[in-house]
Amino acid sequence: MPKLEDLTDRVERLLLRHDELKRTNVLLCEQLEAIGRERDSLRSRLSAARGRIDALLERLPREVSVGGAPARPGDSDPTERAA
């Protein structure tokens, strides 16, 4: 049968460990909140960037031909005559 002193030591160690785990949990919760805020900020920035890219894409002409090549695969050159 364990001695009372042994039980007392074990309980004290458990209490210390409990306090350590509580402190660790608080730190982890703070980190999680910070990461969540960062994620939200990045999502917002991504959404804004997508909006800017979409606006720029809307300003581009629909069909562009470079060097006489068709604008899209399968398109014919508008300067060629149909045979």
Outline the structure in words.
The protein is mostly helical. It has a domain at 33-58. Helices cover 67% and strands 0% of the residues. The protein has 1 helix and no strands. The longest helix has 56 residues, at 4-59. The relative contact order is 0.05. The mean pLDDT is 87.
Descriptive terms for the model:
single chain; 83 residues; mainly alpha; 67% helix
The chain-level structural class is mainly alpha
Inertia-based shape: rod-shaped
The biggest sheet amounts to: none
Low-confidence stretches: none
- Average residue pLDDT: 87
In terms of quaternary structure, the protein is single chain
| Helix run count | 1
Into which percent range does the helicity of residues fall? 55-70%
Please tally the β strands and state the result: 0
From N to C, what is the helix and strand string? H
Radius of gyration: 33 Å
- The span between the termini is 105 Å
Proportion of strand residues? under 5%
Give the arrangement of secondary structure elements.
Layout: H1 4-59
In brief:
The chain has 1 helix and no strands. The chain is mainly α and 83 residues long.
